[in-house]
Design goal:
44% of the residues lie in helices and 13% in strands. The protein contains eight helices and six strands; from the N terminus they run H-H-H-E-E-H-E-H-E-H-E-H-E-H. Helix 1 packs across helix 2.
Length: 198
């Protein structure tokens, strides 16, 4: 079925969004066509506002509205510890734990040779510059526990250790509420390695 040109254009733009295929694009477009104009205008306004007012923090590359992001602007944060994450959403996940009081560095991806992503496409150079200019004593590598995340973690450890800075990796293992029989060997092995005294 051919749609009128404005609907076709909307569908094409929606399909460009990550995780949105043709069916999802149709559902969103139909919703937009049936809601009140004020609802559609609010959505359009929110998109415009975020593009106008949000930028990357020049220090850690998290999202920021002011000059620095909220974490970098907070004088209560421990600047001697930097937690390195792949994406801003990972930073948000760590913050939700309320367990970490240091600062962050967002790489904006992970090393993935198969996708043509090397260290030069990430914010690695900026991290090394931060480490050379400050009083950092520990870097916590919190990349994802997959091939790309592990590759990135190992690469960073090799770069940072010669600087005399402690490099740690977040533990990975079994989720709370998980069953041992369903755990894969790598996850179970890591859970055993990261065991602690009770």
């Amino acid at each position: 079925m051919r749609y009128p040109a404005p609907i076709q254009r909307l569908l094409e733009e929606l399909e460009r969004l990550p995780g949105v295929g043709p069916k999802s694009a149709q559902r969103i477009a139909y919703w937009l066509l049936t809601v009140e104009s004020s609802d559609a205008d609010r959505l359009a306004s929110a998109i415009s506002d975020v593009k106008r007012h949000i930028h990357f923090c020049p220090r850690c590359f998290n999202f920021a509205e002011g000059e620095l992001c909220e974490v970098c602007a907070d004088p209560e944060r421990d600047t001697t510890t930097i937690c390195v994450v792949e994406e801003p959403r990972d930073l948000a996940a760590v913050e939700r734990t309320h367990e970490y009081r240091g600062v962050y560095h967002v790489l904006h991806g992970a090393i993935s040779p198969i996708d043509g992503i090397g260290p030069d496409q990430l914010r690695v150079r900026e991290l090394i510059e931060r480490l050379g200019a400050g009083d950092v004593v520990e870097v916590v590598v919190a990349t994802n526990p997959n091939v790309e995340g592990e590759t990135t973690a190992l690469y960073l450890a090799r770069l940072i250790k010669p600087l005399g800075i402690r490099v740690t990796r977040i533990a990975s293992g079994l989720p709370v509420g998980g069953d041992l029989e369903y755990a894969d060997e790598v996850t179970l092995g890591r859970a055993l390695e990261a065991r602690r005294e009770m």
